[in-house]
Task: structure prediction
Amino acid sequence: MNDYFGHDEYWKEHMNESLEADMWIDEYKSYFNTGGLCLDLGCGMGQFTKRLMEYGYEVIPLDISEIALNKVQEFNSNILKADMRHSLPFHDETFDLVFANLSIHYFSDDDTKKLINEVKRILKNGGLFIGSVNGIKNFQSIKDTAEVLDYHFYLNRVKHIRLFDVDDLKKYLNIFKVLKIDEREITRFEKNNSCLLFFTKKQDFNY
Ligand SMILES: C[S@@+](CC[C@H](N)C(=O)[O-])C[C@H]1O[C@@H](n2cnc3c(N)ncnc32)[C@H](O)[C@@H]1O
Result:
């Protein structure tokens, strides 16, 4: 697999673009707990890290990109450089919330399943896994350049991308209790993307 993100190509390409934060989480605030320990998985420039800190969480912002983490360090010193395709460097049942905005849709089927199992492992029982992924409707915008690698998984120019429909998302998240899945347009770099928002809970016992 190429390493577009590991070589920081994404943030070299986008760092000067306007990242007007689309704070969709504010509309779903009732799904979040009132604090605790949170992992912001693929935190990027950290606009959600910042908001989750305002919600009362202690946040660990994790990303593969040094450019992004240097920016996040300006307001959060817990930054962690790691590759989420590998085991997540945390003990079992550490987090109250794992948050992932547009950051877990780049991986093969195996890596995606492994990652989601890792998220479950590091969440406390009753902990939340909340985030968003690119929706299959975005295929329209890549159809002329994307090479199909697997079902709903593409190499688009230099970047791997997985697009989800609701059934795909339910299948990957079936180890959690799914509280809600919503389709929504998220504005990013002044473009609208069709996304699926997910709200799930780790619920192993009678919680
Ligand atoms: C579309 S950006 C989203 C960033 C941020 N969550 C936001 O909402 O703006 C995807 C992020 O995932 C990170 N990323 C991609 N692959 C990764 C990997 N294997 N391990 C850790 N981070 C990764 C990228 O560096 C980038 O910051």
Summary: Residues 1-37+47-57+66-81 form one domain.
